[in-house]
Predict the structure.
Amino acid sequence: MNRPTEAKTHTKQRHKTMTNLNLITHCGAHKVSREQVVATPAPESTKTHTPIAHATFLRNISDKLDAVGLNISQEVHALSHEGMRYFGMMEVTTEGDSDYSTVLGFRNANDKRFTAGMVIGSGVFVCDNLCFSGEIKFGRKHTPNILMDLPALILEAFQKVGAMRDLQDGRIAAYRETELTDSQVNDLLIQALDANVIASAKIGMVLGEWRTPRHQEFVDAGKTTWRLMNAFTEILKPRAEGNDLFMLPGKTEALHSILDATANFNFGSDLSIGQAA
């Protein structure tokens, strides 16, 4: 596997990757190396709370990626609160030719702030925009059986990546084929505001991306739902404080709900994981 330490190698054809994997986390978090994550100790367990070493979580993710034949092309990691909270993101290669990659977002907190969890989404090559539709995600509380349950949850998630990509291809095709008028876009912006996808202060920014996309790909796409989705995700991109990676899945899930209805797309498949959050 293509990762910094203890790597296994799968020989495959070259794949496109995103230019930049963005990870901006909570205030006080700082980017670290994989080795620093591995070196971070976990606190002692209690009768009701079982912390897990961030290294254990990361190793389980890496091992299960190996098990299903997925390779890491990029990875970034961050720690906060004196190492008690861990955030990570990986881009993984998958077979086939498409305009997007598969991206994993995951986190662990040993101070009871949140569960050990993961969400799988996509990143658009041309602009590095991230979008998590929420079909594959889980969160596991730090109770005594977490170390027993976590490997199976991770493996189940990765085993569903192929089905998610097939369905995502259908969604993107529907978005590309669905043209929008400026009046419809105005209505969809209000729906997105009501659904907490975007703050009122950023509506003008999304509208600017819709009218004059910064990437030629979306100019060429015409006035379609695909162009509008990327106008949203360009502004939601986690590149500055206030655009938190782990707020992104909820926002883009809500965005997909709105745009799926607009494009008459029905995802039509249950990809939920055993203990989905």
About this structure: The chain has two domains: 30-168, 173-262. Confidence is low (pLDDT under 50) at residues 1-15. The first strand starts at residue 30 and ends at 32.
